[in-house]
Amino acid sequence: MAPPRDRTAWLKGGDSHCVDHGTLPERPYRLLLLGPPGSGKGTQAEMITHRLGTCHLSTGDVFRFAKRAGANSPVMREALEAMQRGDLVTDETVTDIVRDRSQCMMCAHGFLLDGYPRTQSQAQALDGFLHELGARIDAALFLRVDDRLLIDRLTGRRSCPACGAIYHTIFNPSKAGDQCDACGGALVQRGDDRLEAVTRRLEIWRETEAMLFAHYSAAGLAVEVPAEGPPVEVFASLERALAEHLAARDGAAATH
Ligand code: AP5
């Protein structure tokens, strides 16, 4: 099992570097993790990172990190206000942020992009970045969960701002009540987990998911993962679906 990866270069951008720790994986996986808010992207990302050693690159985490760091530029203020309402941050801002961190897609540990891309324009921008870098994605994993479960998951979520661990008041409570089991930090509820913002986020996802699925299906990369069971079951389905996808892809490549 791989230790949690340092994500300094992704979270801070610019000239920041990660402190390299841990051995390199046998092969770097390059994955996208997509799905509605509350489908378990963050939860599964932690498990995938531990198993495959990939770096967890979440665009939502970049904005939350900037907020904690007191970032106050007009662009970041506008982005944080959009987040609070449950709206998407503009494509221009998101694309600038990912461009600034595009070297993370060449990480020798591989990467797991979580919650990006979310629009046609972002999907095209990502295709362009990968093309420029000469990098290819292995799979775009789509977590599938019904809306009625998502609202319960989001309104009960608690997370640790210090280490990023994710809990749920009922489905995955912290043993220490309102403190993080991993680092002792005080657990908080995210500002965009209010019912009004949750409803807006779900609406937006349903408007864009078919387009994203079509984009990655056409590229032979879309993999659907049923994600309504407990996290360990979802992870087992995800691993199985990913292994089948990679075996089919490698088999097809060998016959050409
Ligand atoms: P982001 O941080 O990406 O949030 P999201 O996509 O809305 O997803 P969440 O983090 O809310 O949910 P999740 O799927 O990670 O679920 P989790 O594992 O935490 O984005 C936030 C905002 O940033 C956006 O709204 C937007 O404003 C902006 N943004 C980010 N990227 C952007 C982009 N590319 N373009 C434009 N704007 C962007 O699980 C949820 C809860 O359920 C937890 O409590 C967990 O314990 C529980 N749980 C998880 N799995 C299970 C399970 N299997 N069974 C029971 N409970 C479970």
Describe this structure in words.
The chain has nine helices and seven strands, in the order αβαβαααβαβαββαβα. The model has no long low-confidence stretch (mean pLDDT 93). It has a five-stranded parallel beta sheet. The protein has a two-stranded antiparallel ribbon with strand order 5-6. It has helices at residues 8-12, 41-52, 59-68, 74-85, 91-100, 120-133, 147-155, 195-218, 231-254, and strands at 29-34, 55-58, 110-114, 139-144, 157-159, 166-168, 222-226. With 256 residues, the chain is of the alpha/beta class. It binds BIS(adenosine)-5'-pentaphosphate (AP5). BIS(adenosine)-5'-pentaphosphate is lined by residues 35, 37-43, 58-60, 63, 82-83, 86-89, 94, 115-118, 122, 153-154, 156-157, 166-168, 171-172, 192, 201, 230-231, 234.
